Amino acid sequence: MGNHKRWTSALLAAATLTAVTAIPAAAEGSAVVRTESGPVSGTVSDGYRTFQGIPFAAPPVGELRWKSPRPPKKWAGTRDATKPGARCAQSAGGATPSDAEDCLFLNVTTPGSAKGGPKPVMVWLHGGGNSYGSADGFDAHRLAVGGDVVVVTTNYRLGVFGFGGLPGLEGTGGFGLEDQQAALRWVRANAAAFGGDPGNVTLFGESGGSFDVCAQLTSPGARGLFQRAIMQSGSCSTTWPANGIIYGQPGKSAWASADAIAADGAALAARHGCADVACLRLVSAHELANDPLISQPTAAGFGNRVLPERPDRALAAGRFNRVPVITGTTRDEGRLTSAFTPHPFTEAQYQQLLGDGFGDRASRIAARYPTSKYGTPALAWAAVLTDGVWACNQLADNKALARKTTSFGFEFADRSAPTGYFPFPEDVPAGAFHSSDVAYLFDVADFVVTFTPEQQRLADQMIRYWGRFAATGDPNGHDLPRWSRFDGAVQSLAPGAIRPVDAGREHGCGFWAN
Questions:
Q1: Which of 23, 130, 245, 364 has the smallest number of Cβ neighbours within 10 A?
Q2: Do 232 and 325 meet the contact criterion of CB atoms below 8 Å apart?
Q3: 61-79 pLDDT, tens digit each
């Protein structure tokens, strides 16, 4: 999430039961909490506590690069948890550049009051297309206090470190997903010490983090590690055309076979003069993170230990972990991509994008989405992406989920949402752009927000919806507009206008299904 670097970060993340009763909950308001690895000292603020930079796995460096996460070492004394840990290695072209591989840290935010017993736990997977981003960019105190939940934000390996590999290398394509499962196991072992309920965990994420939530829904290794899931702007079936997420990047989906990732890894190794993993482990993190031929967003691998089956196919076949789910998109997802497509954005450019992205379907899409209908070529392209990439694919998955489990759909529809550091051009009004909903739940780093009273009320309502869902598997509360289970209609979340809408009709999903 102002400049081209920041938007990429926003666009583009079976366990053994561990006894938790041995770790007593900290006294209400205490800055020191004892975890399985040792005590940590956090920050006590008015109404909430934060604990930052807690290791949940051993540093994946040296021989542990491209290996499954290992448990963290125990420490003596009290560890300072007042500052976040390092961000995982990622390209210098993003908003959060880093060369750090010792990065498997998480942050915990708790309500100040322990009244009401153990709190639901919500584990956040940040966005950034599995290429960029970090847990420290999301201040969760409003969600923790307003939702009465414990919130955990976690790092996980990104890009080639989290989702790369080589021929014959076990785990290829899935190390970042394994990190997320390690964080969930840490939560189960330590949540009680922070006043959380280790048996009531909600996994939620946005964009790349939402893709990963969907992956974890279909991962056998994640079974039992979370009891609810929320997917914001990203699902198992999301695919995009060339230039459809990041201008200049090829069309793809969130998934790639482990064999394809291994082949890409072999080419990467050759570019760095290596013939095996031992050699490639000696190449610096900076060189690998900034290899110019690695495409983004980063696809997660399937056909490996963590994802035996491609997630969209598993979901469609009903082979997923049965937990209640909330899933949805923003009303104008595609406007962020369109805003960062080269300007001036001409009609010829729009037609070229359609041709490059959709081939022999381009003329049919152009007739359905003419510039005359939307006012500018940039808005026409944005509508194509909103409907064809985001909304209709997410709705298709919601239908698959609803056949097997409790499912709720939403559309974030505040078309005057704060734009923060994004400089939208005149021909692309921001609307409810991709990632605009996140600031209603978190204080996002460097994303300055000034809400109107109605927007503040919507943020408070969304936090209560998310918190109620985390507590019970149902977002409804006596003080909130009724939200029905998904039956084709979704809950439109707009200031002063929360109501059900037929999103399939709104986004022309019948057209995209043919």
A1: 364
A2: no
A3: 999 999 999 999 999 999 9
Q: What is the DSSP letter of 98?
A: B
Token code pair at residue 252 = 């793809």
Give me the helices (H) in 272-341, please: 277-280, 285-289, 311-316, 335-339
| pLDDT single digits (tens) 83-124 | 999 999 999 877 789 999 999 999 999 998 778 899 999 999
Q: Which residue has the tokens 């080589």?
A: 166
Residue 95's pLDDT is 77
How many other CB atoms are there within 10 angstroms of residue 407's CB atom? 20
Contacts of 124 (CB under 8 A, 6+ apart): 135, 138, 140, 151, 152, 153, 154, 204, 205, 209, 442
How far is CA 413 from each of CA 350, 440, 463, 493, 508, rounded to the nearest angstrom? 25, 12, 16, 5, 17
Nearest to 268 by CA among 240, 288, 248: 288
* Pair of tokens at residue 305: 């230990």
SS3 annotation, 258-269: HHHHHHHHHHHH
CA separation for the pair 24, 317 (Å, rounded): 42
Share of the chain above pLDDT 70, in %: 94
The pTM of this model reads 0.94
Concatenating the DSSP letter of every residue in 129-157 gives TTTS--GGGEE-HHHHHHHT-EEEEE---
Number of residues assigned to the chain: 514
- The count of C-alpha atoms lying within 13 angstroms of the C-alpha of 252, restricted to the half-sphere facing its C-beta, is 19
What's the rounded Cα separation, in Å, for the pair 289 and 511?
39
3 state DSSP class of 179: helix
Residue 478's pLDDT is 86
The pairing of strands 119-125 and 150-154 is: parallel
Q: Which residues form the catalytic set? A: 207, 333, 434
pLDDT mean values, one per 10 residues, the chain (514 residues): 40 31 52 97 96 98 98 97 97 86 98 89 98 96 98 98 98 98 98 98 98 98 98 97 96 97 97 97 97 92 98 98 98 98 97 98 98 98 98 97 98 97 95 98 94 98 98 96 97 98 97 94
Cα distance between residue 281 and residue 289, in whole Å: 13
DSSP secondary structure, 208-225, as one string: HHHHHHHHHHH-GGGTTT
CA distance 107 to 136: 7
Residue type, 323: V
Q: What is the dihedral of CA 166, 168, 170, 171, to 10 degrees?
A: 40
Measured CA to CA in angstroms, residue 290 lies from 50, 218, 293, 294, 401 at distances of: 33, 31, 9, 8, 38
Q: Which residues on adjacent β-strands are paired with residue 280?
A: none
